[in-house]
Specification:
The complex is a heterodimer of chains A (391) and B (270). Chain A has 391 residues and is α+β, with helices and mostly antiparallel strands. Chain A has helices at residues 2-13, 268-284, 302-316, 330-333, 372-390; strands at residues 19-27, 30-41, 44-51, 54-64, 67-72, 77-84, 87-96, 99-109, 123-131, 134-145, 148-155, 158-159, 163-168, 171-177, 182-190, 193-200, 204-212, 227-228, 237-239, 245-247, 257-263, 289-297, 322-327, 340-341, 348-352, 358-363. Chain A folds into 3 domains: 2-109, Quinohemoprotein amine dehydrogenase alpha subunit, domain 2 (Lipocalin), CATH 2.40.128.120; 123-212, Beta Barrel (Lipocalin); 222-390, Glutaredoxin. Chain A has an 8-stranded antiparallel beta barrel. Chain A has an 8-stranded antiparallel β-barrel with strand order 9-10-11-13-14-15-16-17. Chain A has a 5-stranded mixed sheet with strand order 23-22-21-25-26. Chain B has 2 domains: 16-41 and 129-241, no CATH class; 45-122. Helices cover 9% and strands 35% of the residues of chain B. Chain B has helices at 7-15, 25-40, and strands at residues 3-4, 48-53, 58-59, 75-79, 82-86, 92-94, 100-102, 105-111, 116-122, 140-144, 153-157, 163-176, 179-189, 196-202, 216-219, 221-224, 227-231. Chain B starts with a strand and ends in a 39-residue tail after the last strand. The chains are: A alpha+beta (391), B mainly beta (270). The A-B interface holds A 28-30, 91, 93, 95-102, 104, 131-134, 200-201, 203-205, 298-301, 304, 326-327, 329, 331-336 and B 26, 29-30, 33-34, 37-38, 41, 43, 80-83, 92-98, 108, 110, 112-114, 119, 147-148, 151, 158-160, 167-169, 187, 190, 192-198, 219, 221-224.
Chain lengths: 391, 270
């Protein structure tokens, strides 16, 4: 009898949180909007984080007393919030070496109303961010997606994922939150110029101006970021997921056109590249083509990293070999690939001819959110592979 | 010119002095999370027993190194960009910014890729609860950040004792104790997140006995429209206040406020 009473009381305290929530992180510079989708599965409740309709698994949801906790498993972070009727109020917490970083979080049931993108904003913009007198280029791409206005931010090393857009008159706010990266930019159209602020985390703010792209290169070309030794065959030797050392001269690569995908499971842009590379593997594999992935992970411990890379392989159904190459920062990865100069980006895609020598190095990857830039890049990759297969 | 903020609030506080002790909810939540982290986290700064640059290699048991008991044969070095632990059987990599257990110790490689640093924690170390002054809304200021005449950067220590390249972000003018004092603001990067904070490391008369002698950090919060909030209620200690394992930042030249800034974190002595 007592057990029944307690169970009923618990049900009354926390209503079923399944469904869609309009989430907000209250940054110092304004509200960052995203969506949380909670679904009941066999193992319990699970959450996804969504930006402009694109959702990615976040982690399990726990109900504790009158509160809900989303464990963002990949990032040692949580969203903890009190459930009050149809609203959630709490904080996103990410614990770093300097202690917890808290960003106020709130949510209400439902989805963000899609706002149409006015023609005045649509298209590609050349942006210049200025921090303490230092300028840094970006490209903004604004388009009308299936959930209304959406955007992409592209740097010299790739894009930041899909941004959800809100438009009000001559002002816009585009936001992206994946559980770790907290990005938003707010801007106002001033004549032909967009003037605004790029927000990262709770209070890192960088002012920018942007003008419509003229077609002149604003970013460094992805093929100009990193150079390579093209005289000697490209060398690598790293353990695969079964602990077997696999080198560049392994029989599975000999005499074949090889694409080396330097990636990390933590790198969201790499997630966009993986299915494209797999499609090339399936299409061109029978003609003497192979992809090999070199994983640079968070821990450098093969036991831990192996689990992450296996999960990545299963997620994208990858059939090409994946090797555990090292630790996931450009500074730490560079010494393990001594034939590259100026290695700066994950992913970096290295195209090798049948003789094993480097023909092209492509830094970064433009994800689907970048629209035409993504399509053009995939077409270039395809053209390079076909050209190398004909050699 | 920085102006005093919350003039109306100050008037309200004077009429109702009880409110002075209550921190606003977001600040109270931050303090509660920080206090919980100090008290319970295995890598709480109170648990730090050593922090040293890895340089050409660190012998963990050596007197010149961290001097860890029972680890006389262990050595940490950097090989091909990885931080590697050897001397205890098969060499094993140590993940950056993540703890690896070794006996009673936790090893956390951090710092920048160019100058990696090893911090060692021993969870059994005693901890103390942090203590804050009652909240004082009169010690919040909002104003403009005057940019530096010329862009520059210099190496300095972060609150957690890591040497980074910080850029000069300018100055703020703070009207306090009847004097307008110009405080230097530096943009300090966090190697672990890629984000940065606009920090002021300052000293004041409370350093003589109530707050940490080397000074305290306080981060500027952007308010929009080129304005920033400098809230001394958010002042916090460098980690050397919790453990002598951390290197203590040198006071920033000129960042000295006249009088007692009785807001933010206090120093809980032994």
């Amino acid at each position: 009898m007592l057990a029944t009473t307690v169970a009923l009381a618990l049900v009354a305290i926390v209503p079923d949180p399944s469904g869609s929530w309009r989430g907000v992180l209250d940054l110092a510079g304004g509200p960052l909007r995203f969506e949380v989708a909670i679904a009941r599965e066999a193992g319990g409740l699970r959450a996804e984080l969504c930006n402009a309709g694109e959702c990615a698994p976040a982690g399990p949801v726990r109900l504790i007393g009158d509160s809900l906790v989303i464990d963002l498993t990949d990032y040692a972070a949580t969203i903890a919030a009190r459930v009050s009727g149809d609203s959630l109020v709490g904080a996103y917490s990410n614990v770093g070496n300097r202690g917890p970083r808290l960003i106020p979080f709130r949510a209400a049931r439902g989805r963000w109303k899609a706002t149409a993108l006015p023609a005045a904003f649509a298209g590609q913009w050349d942006a210049t961010l200025v921090t303490d007198g230092r300028a840094s280029p970006r490209i903004f791409v604004f388009s009308e997606g299936r959930r209304g206005a959406e955007g992409a931010v592209i740097s010299n090393t790739g894009d930041y994922g899909r941004f959800h857009g809100m438009v009000a008159g001559d002002s816009v706010a585009f936001s992206h939150f994946d559980g770790s990266f907290v990005y938003m930019f707010t801007a106002r159209l001033d004549g032909d110029t967009l003037r605004g602020t790029f927000h990262a985390g709770l209070r890192t703010q960088t002012p920018f101006t942007a003008v419509r792209s003229t077609g002149r290169a604003h970013l460094k070309a992805p093929t100009e970021m990193t150079t390579a030794d093209t005289i000697e065959p490209f060398r690598f030797a790293f353990p695969d997921l079964d602990g077997r050392l696999v080198a560049h001269d392994d029989p599975q690569f000999r005499g074949r056109v090889v694409v080396v995908d330097v990636f990390g499971t933590w790198c969201s842009t790499c997630h966009y590249a993986a299915p494209i590379l797999e499609s090339f593997q399936r299409e061109y594999g029978p003609r003497g083509f192979t992809v090999v992935g070199l994983a640079y992970e968070v821990t450098g411990d093969t036991a831990v990293d192996g689990v992450l890379v296996r999960r990545y392989r299963e997620k994208f159904g990858l059939t090409f070999p994946l090797l555990l190459a090292g630790m996931g920062t450009a500074e730490l990865a560079a010494p393990t690939l001594p034939q590259l100069n100026g290695f700066t980006a994950f992913p970096t895609t290295i195209f090798l001819g049948r003789d094993g020598r480097v023909r092209r190095v492509h830094a970064g990857f433009y994800g689907p959110a970048t629209g035409a830039m993504h399509r053009q890049q995939v077409a270039e990759f395809r053209a390079v592979i076909e050209s190398l297969l004909r050699e | 010119m920085v102006s005093r903020a919350l003039v109306l609030c100050l008037a309200a506080v004077a009429a109702a002095p009880v409110a002075r002790a209550q921190a606003p909810a977001p600040l109270a939540a931050e303090r509660a999370a920080f206090a919980d982290w100090l008290a319970t986290a295995p890598t709480s700064p109170f648990a730090a027993v050593a922090q040293q640059p890895i340089g050409s290699g660190l012998a963990l048991g050596a007197a010149a190194g961290p001097g860890l008991e029972g680890l006389e044969k262990a050595r940490v070095s950097v090989e091909a960009g990885r931080v590697v632990l050897d001397g205890l059987g098969t060499p094993r990599p140590l993940p950056r910014f993540r703890p690896t257990r070794l006996g009673r110790y936790l090893l956390v490689p951090g710092g920048t890729a160019a100058t990696p640093v090893l911090t060692v924690f021993d969870s059994s170390r005693a901890r103390k609860a942090p203590r804050w002054y009652p909240h004082d809304p009169a010690l919040e200021f909002v104003g403009a950040l005057t940019p530096p005449v010329q862009a520059s950067s210099r190496r300095l220590l972060t609150p957690d004792g890591i040497e980074v390249e910080a850029t000069d972000a300018g100055t703020v003018l703070v009207p306090f104790a009847g004097v307008a004092t110009r405080l230097r603001v530096m943009r300090i990067p966090d190697p672990a997140t890629g984000e940065s904070e606009l920090e002021v490391f300052f000293r004041d008369s409370t350093n003589a006995g109530e707050t940490y002698p080397a000074g305290r950090f306080v981060a500027l919060v952007p308010e929009g429209g080129g304005k920033y909030r400098l809230d001394f209620n958010r002042s916090r200690n460098p980690f050397c206040a919790y453990s002598s394992a951390y290197a203590c930042p040198l006071p920033w030249q000129g960042n000295v406020l006249p009088g007692h800034v009785r807001a933010g974190e206090q120093y809980v002595k032994d």
